[in-house]
Design brief:
The chain is an alpha+beta fold and about 400 residues long. It is about 55% helix and about 15% strand. Strands 1, 2, 5, 6, 7, 9 and 10 form a 7-stranded mixed β-sheet that branches.
Length: about 400
């Protein structure tokens, strides 16, 4: 294979990895934001909503909307200093601007009549996926005695220019009904009496979009595909990854397992580098024979020693990725069958995209390896090298905060 062809392969692979990785934040999914809303019964028959909003985005948006420069200055100074007490104090000192921003974009209505909001407590601070979030309790006074409550969210719209594709994850337990829903620009509202299939479709779409916008998870999957030598390896690797992340995803989303994101996120980044580096190490050891299987029996799903070891590594890292998937939902709700099915559908959405990527990419690499073995080796090696570098960069960023 000529030097020009080799350079071309490396260039194409580098461009793909650069497109996926460069410019992405140390913590994944940073170009969008997620708002969390918990709905319960408040005092005196009111509807209580507890909203969690990404702090620095909230400060910038509210200050811009209300032309409140002091809020922007004090809020950002507290954010840069990592001062959670100062962050809450900044919002409480400028509560009028902050609350107005929220209530102009988030609403509750009853039988078509808007409910009246009132702040039910001070702003407090919490964290989601390692990111500071402001928590705001609101009580909504709804006239009448109907039961068709409708929630609408237009928080952090694309038009503001700060983020795109904001999601609002709603969990509710009110009037004997409980469940979850996902709101976005295409589906900005939902009724507490919404049909089960409409609610589940939202969570399927949310799971699919979460994987597509989660660059670190995509690169991990790309490393698995590039390093798989046969169909049996990618099938078993994908199955192992699915089983592992499904277990921890469900446990974490149901509140049975709680691992800090400052631990989860660096390990996810490291897993990308390790899985990609594993294949590079094999190329270094075996050269042109890197894609060959060592002697195994005739079973279709048999693996050699290296394959089984890699499978174990993938399973262990899959457990950690499941914690990352769960962090996207941030659901804080007691066990219910409705919640369980919502989580399962979210997970099915993730798997749907994962299988689609494998079905599109792996056959192309197999054809290339069959028709031009050296070109296939260089291509998969270049992809793995790019993925490994991005994984190490993210690992350093997430550990040391730069």
């Amino acid at each position: 294979m000529s030097q020009r062809v080799r350079l071309g392969i490396i260039g194409i692979a580098a461009a793909v990895i650069t497109f996926l990785g460069v410019g992405q934040p140390a913590f994944a999914h940073g170009f969008s934001s997620v708002v969390y809303a918990q709905v319960t019964t408040g005092d005196e028959g009111h509807i209580r909503t507890t909203l969690k909003l990404e702090y620095d985005l909230f400060v910038a948006s509210a200050a811009d909307y209300e032309d409140d420069d002091p809020l922007f200055r004090t809020g950002n100074a507290a954010f840069d200093a990592g001062d959670t007490t100062g962050q809450a104090a900044a919002l409480n000192a400028h509560a009028k601007s902050a609350v107005k921003y929220v209530t102009d974009r988030f609403s509750v209505s009853l039988d078509g009549t808007a409910c009246t909001p009132a702040r039910a407590g001070d702003f407090t601070m919490t964290r989601q996926e390692g990111v500071p979030y402001a928590e705001l309790p609101l009580d909504w006074n709804c006239a009448g005695r109907g039961d068709d409550h409708v929630l609408r969210s237009g928080l952090f719209p694309d038009s503001e220019g700060y983020v795109t594709g904001t999601k609002t994850i709603v969990t509710y337990k009110i009037d004997g009904r409980s469940g979850s829903a996902a709101l976005d620009a295409a589906h900005p509202s939902f009724s507490l009496g919404q049909s089960w299939y409409a609610r589940f479709w939202e969570f399927f779409s949310l799971g699919a979009e979460h994987l597509l916008t989660g660059t670190d998870h995509i690169l991990f999957l790309l490393a698995l595909i590039a390093g798989s030598r046969r169909l049996r390896e990618i099938v078993l690797a994908a199955t192992s990854f699915t089983l592992a992340h499904s277990v921890t995803f469900m446990l974490a989303a149901l509140g049975l397992v709680d691992v800090p994101s400052k631990v989860v996120e660096p390990v996810i980044a490291l897993s990308i580098a390790v899985v990609a580096g594993w294949y590079l190490w094999r190329i270094w050891r075996r050269g042109d024979h890197a894609t060959e299987l060592e002697a195994v029996d005739g079973s279709h799903f048999s693996l050699d020693r290296a394959g089984w070891t890699r499978l174990g590594v993938v399973f262990c890292f899959g457990l950690v990725h499941g914690l990352g998937f769960a962090g996207a939902l941030g659901i804080d709700q007691a066990w219910s069958w409705t919640l369980l099915w919502s989580l399962l559908v979210f997970n099915v959405g993730i798997e749907g995209v994962q299988l689609t990527i494998i079905a599109l990419v792996f056959p192309l690499l197999m054809v290339l390896r069959h028709r031009a073995p050296k070109a296939g080796l260089w291509t998969t090696g270049a992809i793995s090298a790019g993925v490994a570098v991005m994984g190490l960069v993210w690992f350093m960023q997430r550990v040391f905060g730069f």
